[in-house]
Amino acid sequence: MRAYWFDNAEGDQRLPHDSGRAVSADYLSQLGVLYYNIPSESDVDKLALERSYKNRDMITVSPEKMGAIYEEKVKSFFHEHLHEDEEIRYIRDGAGFFDVRSEGDEWVRIFLEKDDLIILPAGIYHRFTTDEKNYIVAMRLFKEEPKWTPLNRGPDVDVNPFRKEYLQTRQV
Ligand code: KMT
Ligand code: NI
User: Fold this and answer.
1) What ipTM was assigned to the predicted interfaces of this complex?
2) Is Hydrolase set as a keyword in this record (predicted)?
């Protein structure tokens, strides 16, 4: 894992866009974003049990796996959105970027690779992209039924109860 302020430069979303200013795991935790490095899948089983994640699946995001819809998918993952539940991703192969909004509404870019696990809280605005290698395999964990409807940012979603609760909890 490596986190830094996004540079906001033009250019492909899959480029690093590294401003050179690092962001600490401590700062991420202030945003409610939790990060773990977990080499052993049995430790992920423990975490899933503790947090009552009952379901999981694996997703491969690559042109080989997705074919013609790959580019479209990658663009849609990159639309700024939130969820009404936590988003948990455990990277099993390849790499990618999760961008999350800071308290000042700037992008923090989080580079994740194998054995990295991230928990994004409900209500945080974020987006995802593969990197230039166009390949990531991730485990997605869910509490109950997969509930990952992305709610794209806009005036109506800004007042979503889960968004309001996130802002209140973080006091940001
Ligand atoms: C998301 O939430 O954007 C995704 O699930 C992307 C694929 S997981 C690496
Ligand atoms: Ni999401």
Assistant:
1) 0.91
2) no
